[in-house]
Design brief:
CATH class of the largest domain: Alpha Beta
Number of domains: 3
Distance between the termini: 19 Å
CATH topology of the largest domain: Rossmann fold
Structural class: alpha/beta
Bound molecules: guanosine-5'-triphosphate, magnesium ion
CATH superfamily of the largest domain: P-loop containing nucleotide triphosphate hydrolases
Number of helices: 16
Strand order of the largest sheet: 3-4-5-6-2-1-7
CATH architecture of the largest domain: 3-Layer(aba) Sandwich
Length: about 450
């Protein structure tokens, strides 16, 4: 177990109302006492846990800032160790100055995610809960945050632990039976064993099937906006991002490069790309953009195909529609504020979902959000009851499922219970990896290397 006392600035760099310097480890209170003087002359070492003291930070005789020092005592803290959090004024210079003093007085700089790593190593949370901490911080939308909070509460762990417990009971029974067949151990109840395997298979299969949804909730839907030049693609992009992300002009061929942005509309996150208008062109720069736009269509999870409602459909529109045959597309019939000339029937016959909007007057967004939700989220699904939320968890669940299927096959073909037990043991091993109960240091380090310093 790591014993050194670590410290880091826990708040974002930059100017802010307050900045927090977090210290964790056996010596954290002693170190803080060396630089903090409370107005009531109370030492932090004499301060109970969950108590704040108001005072000042000194570098020798020079006052650095007026602060609040908050004491947590092991094991009742985030990390499970003694923790002091010093809240000072939120300026870059002041927070760095306080951190430097803490380090000069015996702490070492914390690595990425080291506070949470210690919380995990001290048994305050399992690995899926620790991973969720970073997902809460990184959440880009409401649903992403809701799911991350449920995982931090242990929603996935509970699901996994339920199957794990039953599998362990079965494995123990099988092992005892195999080792001491002549002893007075009750016969293995085959029905019970098969029920456990079926239940495990069902839960793991559901989790694996929902993984795609989890990814969409967490990272957003890969979305591309395509259409002819001048139909209003960049205006739509600006409308969705809420600021002037793209250049908009009435000159066809304005957008050349792909412009990307992550936007959140309602509960939905879109990783959206605005592209060059698709048309035949002799301009070499524009034609590269057109090629890139066409390529983007095939890789996207969602295509927003924009049309100009004030113009008749032409050959270029029709060839774009033809290119959308095997894609998840929504037609956006834009410029509905103008007199409508477009053949709506043709579009509706060829693209399943059609939204009528005016990007310039910012109308039609609610309808778009609703349509995307219907397309991507199975109605009624509640993702807060525990889902796999990253590739590490997904890989472990898949391996566990394979072992369960193997165990079932072994029973079906009449293999010995020994062989069934081997597969069940392997499944348990994978589930223990998933929750982090039996995980290598390499994997643990890899998980926390993606965290920010100070968390
Ligand atoms: N009346 C009206 N004009 C719009 C609407 N949306 C966009 N426009 C106008 O249409 C013109 C083209 O808009 P852009 O967003 O640049 O179109 P684009 O599809 O990105 O064009 P390219 O980048 O050239 O392919 C601009 O003059 C916009 O102001 C709309 O809803 N109604
Ligand atoms: Mg454009």
């Amino acid at each position: 177990m790591e014993t050194e006392t670590i410290a880091a600035i826990a708040t974002a760099r930059g100017q802010g109302g307050i900045g927090v310097i977090r210290i964790s480890g056996e010596d954290s209170i002693e170190i803080a006492d060396k630089i903090f003087v409370s107005y009531l002359n109370k030492k932090l070492k004499d301060t109970p846990g969950y108590t704040a003291r108001y005072g000042r930070i000194f570098d020798k005789n020079e006052c650095i800032d007026e602060v609040v020092a908050l004491v947590f005592r092991a094991p009742h803290s985030y990390t499970g160790e003694n923790v002091v959090e010093i809240s000072c004024h939120g300026g870059v210079f002041v927070t760095e100055q306080v951190l430097k003093l803490v380090i000069d007085n015996g702490a070492i700089p914390a690595g990425p995610g080291e506070f949470t790593k210690r919380a995990f190593l001290n048994g305050k949370m399992d690995l899926t809960q620790a991973e969720a901490v970073m997902d809460i911080i990184g959440a880009k939308g409401k649903e992403a945050a809701r799911v991350a909070i449920s995982l931090r509460d242990g929603a996935l762990s509970q699901k996994i632990n339920k199957i794990k417990k039953e599998l362990i009971a079965q494995a123990a029974h099988l092992a005892a039976f195999a080792d001491y067949p002549e002893d007075d151990i009750p016969q293995v109840e085959m029905d019970e064993l098969i029920n456990t395997l079926n239940l495990s298979e069902k839960i793991l299969t559901e989790l694996i099937c929902e993984y795609g949804n989890g990814k969409i909730i967490r990272d957003g839907i890969d979305t591309v906006i395509v259409g002819k030049p001048n139909v209003g693609k960049s205006t739509l992009m600006n409308f969705l991002s809420g600021f002037e992300r793209c250049i908009v002009t009435d000159i066809p061929g304005t957008t050349r490069d792909i412009i990307e942005e992550t936007v959140s509309i309602g509960n939905v996150i879109l990783k959206i790309s605005d592209t060059a208008g698709i048309r035949e062109t002799s301009d070499p720069v524009e034609s590269i953009g057109v090629e890139m736009a066409k390529n983007k269509i095939s890789g996207a999870q969602l295509v927003l195909a924009v049309f100009d409602a004030s113009k008749n459909l032409d050959q270029e529109d029709i060839s774009i529609i033809e290119n959308l045959k095997d894609t998840n597309a929504i037609a956006i019939v834009n410029k509905m504020d103008l007199e409508t000339k477009i053949d709506c029937k043709y579009i509706e016959e060829n693209i399943k979902k059609v939204i009528y909007c005016s990007a310039i007057s910012r109308k039609g967004l609610n309808e778009l959000e609703k349509t995307i939700s219907e397309m991507f989220y199975t109605s009624g699904s509640d993702f807060t009851d525990g889902i796999l939320y990253n590739s590490r968890q997904y890989a472990a669940a898949k391996m566990a499922l394979e072992c369960i299927v193997e165990a079932k096959n072994a029973i079906d073909i009449g293999m010995t219970l020994d062989a069934v037990d081997v597969s069940i043991e392997s499944a348990i091993e994978e589930l223990l990896k998933l929750t982090g109960e039996r995980v290598t240091e390499k994997v643990t380090n890899e998980v926390f290397s993606h965290f920010c310093v100070g968390k």
